[in-house]
UniProtKB/TrEMBL annotation:
Domain of life (superkingdom): Bacteria
Keyword Hydrolase included in the entry's annotation: yes
Gene Ontology molecular function, alphabetical: adenine deaminase activity
Record's protein name: adenine deaminase
Reaction(s) catalysed by this chain's protein: adenine + H2O + H(+) = hypoxanthine + NH4(+)
InterPro entries attached to this UniProt entry: Adenine_deam_C, Amidohydro-rel, Metal-dep_hydrolase_composite, Metal_Hydrolase
Organism of derivation: Cytobacillus dafuensis (Bacillus dafuensis)
Known EC number: 3.5.4.2
EC supergroup of this enzyme: hydrolase
Signal peptide: none
């Protein structure tokens, strides 16, 4: 488990050297390549020799032996390293396999992924088996190690036990601890979390923060306790404060925080024009946000906002590799690195026309190349469709709570006093209050309240997609809510909508009820249809997928609906506990 992620065996290394001696042939020769050279900070010309998944030479020479070599003349193209996404949440309706495949078409060939869903849904043995399987795809997949569930769950001490967390930290595919959504506990004296941070540091791994709105003093304290990077800068001043305290600043452009353009404008107004301590992330956006690309889109925005071209590419490549101590493998085109290379038609257009990932073509001349690997067997990896063997009925839909939750925006919830009659089976469409239920995926408990600000004319909505995999029901009509639940049950998990007794929208999520096995392009289409439908029904915020995810997320204020009950985040108390069914 502790061996290096890319440790070529002695035989492989001898083979690599033999290519330079002419005893073996490269598998791919890129001739006349104009490429981004980070050492000189210039565009240089060279011939690039590749053997399987590794660059074995970059320079003026040509190989003596080309018996087994594909040769590509790169005249007229510009080559840059494969882009790196350092903060992926690969479970947002899509799955890690399909996200990696889709991202590679836009040149993002390496992802550093959240492990939260794996930690919550699978035992450690199955999760690690899945990590091994992910090594067989052309993209490179690294992972984080979470220290908390970012919500109040049952048996958290077992899921995030010292043994489990230590095993994750020790895994060779894990590059960092975090993100630290539970940092208030850390500041309040949680020595176990501090010990895990110390262990990560001992292993030369990074700690990723999650510090929205943190003051200068708080940022300094968290740096002293081990944080290395934070992606929650929302203003130029936030960037400045993080840089002053020694952080690597992850500039964000996501479906709920498309901050990059304004960040760059405010940074430039403040005179911040040095970018070596900055990296890019799309922070696990909803599928439709990726229609225009991933890290390539951020590089394009940076260039458009006046960032020097070299720096724009560096923030999506070498800066990330240096931060995570993987520069010897990733982030530049040089001898010994993994052969992740993007082929551009122009240095100002970062979306590649062709892409190499681990030396394999995944895109060629604008067309995707089907991966030459066996399809992933989700069932064999422990990812089963949901088996819901219990029923929901009208008795479960009883409402007597004195207050509900009000959506201030996509993800921020506040309490409000309920003044309407909740004893009816159908709520009026003259207001934006809906019945809301969070129910245990195993049917053991439920919590019922009203939700204000989600929709005005939504009959029945059910989702197995949530932070913890528990079920969310929303609607004006109790009968349609139950009907949507029944359809969700039939399809083995997903998002379903019932209107006047008929199912009118659905996104099947047949991997644990939280992910689809369909291609990202298909999920984008279905998500766009759902988003359009919900807008017609009164949803007025930025991203309904993230609303579903964050109803239970206690790393944001003010009120959350969790496995423990309705939770006051600021006072760290359960206001109304869940009810056993």
């Amino acid at each position: 488990m502790l061996e290096q992620r890319y440790r070529w065996k002695n035989k492989h290394l001898r083979d690599h050297v033999s290519i330079l001696d002419g005893k073996l042939s490269p598998t791919l020769l890129l001739k006349n390549a104009r490429y981004l050279n980070h050492a000189f900070r210039k565009w240089k010309h060279a011939n690039i020799w590749i053997y399987n998944d590794r660059i074995v030479y970059v320079g003026e020479m040509l190989p003596e032996n080309i018996d087994q070599c594909e040769i590509m003349d790169c005249d007229g193209l510009v080559l840059v390293p494969g882009y790196i996404e350092p903060h992926a949440h690969p479970f947002q309706l899509y799955n890690p396999h399909t996200l990696a495949s889709y991202a590679s078409q836009f040149g993002t060939t390496t992802l550093i992924n959240d492990n939260l869903m794996l930690a919550l849904q699978l035992d450690k043995k199955k999760a690690f088996s899945f990590l091994r399987e992910m090594r067989n795809i052309p993209s490179t997949m690294y992972w984080w190690c979470r220290f908390d569930a970012q919500t109040e769950i049952h048996n958290e001490e077992l899921i995030f036990s010292h043994g489990n967390v230590k095993s994750w930290l020790e895994h060779d595919a894990v590059l960092q601890g975090g993100e630290l959504t539970g940092w208030p506990k850390l500041l309040d004296g949680d020595d176990l979390m501090l010990h895990w941070i110390q262990e990560a540091k001992r292993m030369r791994k990074k700690i990723e923060g999650h510090f929205p709105g943190a003051s200068e003093k708080t940022l300094a304290k968290l740096m002293l306790l081990g944080a290395d990077c934070d992606h929650e800068a929302m203003t130029g001043k936030d960037v400045y404060n993080r840089l002053m305290q020694g952080y690597t600043v992850s500039l964000r452009y996501s479906s709920i925080r498309p901050d990059l353009p304004i960040l760059l404008e405010e940074m430039h107004q403040m005179g911040i024009n040095h970018y070596d301590q900055m990296i890019f992330t799309t922070d696990g956006s909803s599928p439709s946000f990726y229609e225009q690309g991933m890290i390539d889109q951020m590089i394009r925005i940076a260039i458009d906002k006046g960032v020097p071209i070299m720096d724009a590419y560096n923030m999506g490549t070498i800066n990330i590799a240096r931060h995570y101590n993987i520069e010897y493998l990733h982030g530049n085109i040089a001898t010994g690195r993994i052969a992740n290379i993007n082929f551009l038609t122009d240095e100002t257009n970062p979306t590649p026309i062709s892409v190499l990932a681990k030396g394999k073509w995944v895109k060629r001349d604008g067309k995707p190349i089907e991966e030459d690997i066996k399809p992933l067997s989700w069932k064999d990896e422990g990812f089963e469709p949901l088996q819901i063997n219990w029923e929901l009925d009208q008795d479960d839909l009883q409402y007597s709570m004195p207050f509900g939750i009000k959506m201030e925006n996509t993800v921020i919830m506040k309490p409000y006093s309920i003044s309407i009659d909740v004893s009816v089976d159908q709520l009026s469409t003259s207001h934006d209050e809906c019945f809301f239920m969070l129910v245990d995926r195993h049917g053991k408990w439920r919590i019922n309240t009203l939700l204000k600000g989600f929709a005005t004319d939504l009959d029945g909505f059910a989702s197995s997609f949530s932070n913890t995999g528990d079920f969310i029901l929303i609607g004006k009509n109790k009968g349609d809510m139950i009907n949507a639940f029944h359809r969700m049950k039939e399809i083995g998990g997903g998002i379903t909508v019932s209107e006047n007794g008929s199912i009118v929208q659905e996104i099947p999520l047949n991997i644990l009820g939280v992910m689809s096995d369909e291609k990202v392009e298909s999920i984008i289409k279905k998500e766009n249809e759902l988003r359009h439908y919900l807008r017609e029904k009164g949803y007025k915020h930025a991203d309904p997928i993230y609303s579903l995810l964050f109803f239970s997320s206690t790393h944001l204020p003010y009120i959350r609906v969790t496995q423990q009950g309705i939770y006051d985040v600021m006072n760290k108390t359960v206001l109304f506990p869940t009810i056993m069914r």
